[in-house]
Amino acid sequence: MSSLPISSPTPEPSAAADPVALPAHQPEAADLAARTAGDDLLAPAVRLDDVVPAPERVEADPTASFVLTADTTIRVTADPGARAVADHLAELLRPATGFLLPVADDTRTDGPTGTLTLTLAATPASPAPATERPTTDLGAQGYRLDVTAAAVRLVADTPTGLFYGVQTIRQLLPAAVESPTPVTTRWALPGGTILDRPRFPYRGAMLDVARHFFTVEDVLRVIDHLARYKLNHLHLHLTDDQGWRIAVDSWPKLATVGGASEVGGGPGGRYTKADYRRIVSHAAARHVTVVPEIDLPGHTNAALVAYPQLAPDKLAPPPYTGTEVGFSYVDPADEQTYDFIADVLGEVAALTPGPWLHIGGDEAFKVKGAVYTDFVERAQRIVADTGKAVVGWHQLAPAAHLDGRVLQWWGTDADDPTTADAVRRGARLILSPGNHAYLDMKYAQDTPIGHDWAGLIDVRRAYDWDPGTHIADVPSTAVLGVEAPLWTESVTSLTDIEFMLFPRLPAIAELGWSPRATHDWDGFRERLAGHGPRWSTAGITFHRSPEIPWPATPTVPRQNRAPRNDTESH
Ligand code: TNX
């Protein structure tokens, strides 16, 4: 599958005294009383090749396993980014294990007791002191994980690679690791080596916060869900006919007036700049880049309610709470419109550390032909002036190419000569095929929420396509990655969001991450099945797809379950 070196790049364990040994935290007696150790016997052991998304290369050693105990310590290369990942690992493991898991900056990789070591390797380009560190061929997002009876050793060239290795470690522990309260079990990780790195650099999900508004807390939890499956972009659809959700100082009524509505007539809502910064920084700590979308020139009714001078007839429309599309647009013939766009995109760019600004461009049915392409070309240049790269829905394809331009393809007919032509002119693609990757499509006819215009999408349909070959006459080298959009016309709560995300989001994540050679529906459904108990334990709502052989018995003691369970909420 790969020519990656399998010999250990990490030094052998040192026999030096452990300077960080701390008294182990003992779980409370009350917690212990609530446990039924026998239930753990029902839990199937996790195998090294159970990870989702499937790693590039797995070499199991069935004779070895590492057991996390109250004496386990975490060691990490002295580097702020690596240290943050080690702290994150400790925070993930402490609630369920009840162990202290002290973290120490220490370039020596092992102590005398069981350790989890996170080593930041030297990148070939890095300067002098790094010569003490091992090097890998794992790239900016890859990692190598070695599990032996003595230690768990994780090595990567970047903190991002370490972060993904941590997500793998989490999945290799029993499902009880997702428990918010301490559980007694044998915290074993299966032995062997994993070498892993992503197939595509861009792996994302989109949340439409415009049709229904979702709180900052909801968005942070969605980011956590992305991070579990090694997705690295959250596209926020911040504006639409039904609501404008981001504060803009130069046009304040966009958020205060334009944000005060949503589908169905609810109160809507908006993010202050501080809210948005919180989202961005929570995402950054999980190695997720936020991609903000300001949808133009259509999907703009909420902006027109706030500022009628942007409307072609200069009249304020009523707030819109329905679910039709394509009726609204900002006036492409008025210079004020371009001032508005420059102000808004300038402020959003200044708030956004990531390289992308998404300008929508979809379903502008009333802005046609040259008027539309002229508008888009101007908007693209405004994005470039902010220093960001432009992303837009694939309706942007006919407009002139601009350096770094990315089109997000949401079609259902993979024979799309207009998009293929834009690719020949230099565009790269994010693939979100409506009939495979749209998380707002119903799973089955009787799914109580969602659409069906692109068909019904259960897990197999979400999984069985190849981003590298999907669009006719587009080479895989032009594919930046994949994204699963969740439109929220009928999605009104965090429970609804999770129900539509799980279990399809991991399927899309695997398409974005795993080498094509690992693609195998039968294997995937078996691996995915083991995640049901994880979601249940973490209190994540999911669709019990009949396509997946979910385990029948609970694998953690009931008393330790989080309040929500995995029964469908609809
Ligand atoms: C199409 S996909 C839209 C959205 C709707 C969605 C519903 C795209 C770029 N535009 O405005 O919410 O369908 O599935």
How does this model look, in words?
- With 570 residues, the chain is an alpha/beta fold.
- The protein has 16 helices and 17 strands.
- The chain has helices spanning 29-33, 80-97, 159-172, 216-228, 253-256, 273-285, 301-306, 335-351, 369-386, 417-424, 434-437, 459-463, 494-501, 504-513, 521-529, 531-538, and strands at 57-68, 73-76, 103-105, 115-120, 143-147, 151-156, 187-196, 202-208, 233-237, 239-240, 243-244, 289-296, 356-360, 389-393, 406-409, 428-431, 479-486.
- α2 runs parallel beside α3, α4 (216-228) packs parallel to α6 (273-285) and α8 (335-351) packs parallel to α9.
- The relative contact order is 0.12.
- Bound molecules: ligand TNX.
- Ligand TNX binds next to loops.
Name the beta content range. 15-25%
Rg on CA atoms, Å: 24 Å
Strand ordering within the main sheet? 8-9-12-13-14-15-16-17
Mean pLDDT: 89
Q: How many DSSP helices?
A: 16
Shape from CA axes?
globular
**Cα-to-Cα separation, first versus last residue:** 42 Å
List low-pLDDT spans. 1-43, 557-570
Bound molecules: ligand TNX
Overall strand count = 17
Estimated helix fraction:
25-40%
Structural class by SSE content? alpha/beta
Largest sheet: 8 strands, parallel, barrel
